[in-house]
Amino acid sequence: MKLYRLLHLMNILVNNDKVTIKQLSEKLEVSRRTIYRDLETLTMAGFPIVSYPGYDGGITVAEGYKLDKCLLSLEDWENILTGLNTIKTMGDTEKIEYLIGKIAPKNIETINQQSDIVIDLSQWYDDDTQDLIIGIRNAIGNKQLVSIEYISKISSTVRTIEPYKLVFKERDWYIYAYCLLRMDFRLFKLNRISAYEIMVDNFIPRQVTVPSFALKNELYEKDNNTQYRIVLEFALENKEFLLQALGALNFKIADNKGIIDFNTTNLDYAVNLIISLQDKIKVISPPILQEQVLQTINKMKKLYEG
Fold it and tell me: pTM for the full model?
């Protein structure tokens, strides 16, 4: 508790011109005598405290030890605060607000209002996923092993991992970790983790070379070089549903109907995509895609008839 108070005291002194003993006492919620003892402790540790007597006096530190916030431009502060505020939406509210309070200039509210970017990642996970993200971040910080039940495209396995990075890519969260089962670094998608446990065992960190985390576009994932032009049709009443699902990039409106067209080399993925859109979409071309969609629908029908 004393160490935390001393660190807080140092930050107040570094980031203010002069502060009185009374102000420090009120800010840290301790007695004036405690403040004097803490200042003596810092002085003995070599922290360059300067005291100015008189009406306009107070406590501060030598100029060479202060962070000159004027070195950072308004754009610099906008970028820093955008990043910190983004992390704050992930559940680290108190820590990040404390950090912002330590480094931010006095006109922080004005800077926040002028920034043209607001990123809120809280919409991308539910409460269970948020708990997982917080747990993984703690495990990374504490260097704790994590046991996960992971469902891949071909199997379900229990793995022990050494977590190193949380990655947000496109619309999903991932864990970049060393997998003790595969004896290699892997990228694990959070929504494929069916269960997890933060273990009491610690690990010795490995040398990590952070990759680009480039993810394959499943529309072009197949080794097949044949490219298909997909044309889909939809009623305008389903426009909002499809915009939310696919985005507006390939949308067109013609003759009171909606058209979506794109290219792909992966027909299997295109079939699954169209099935997931239920009865909101109709395949116009190519004929091979129409046939595969109908085959899939017939298989689904047989499941219910049986």
Answer: 0.53
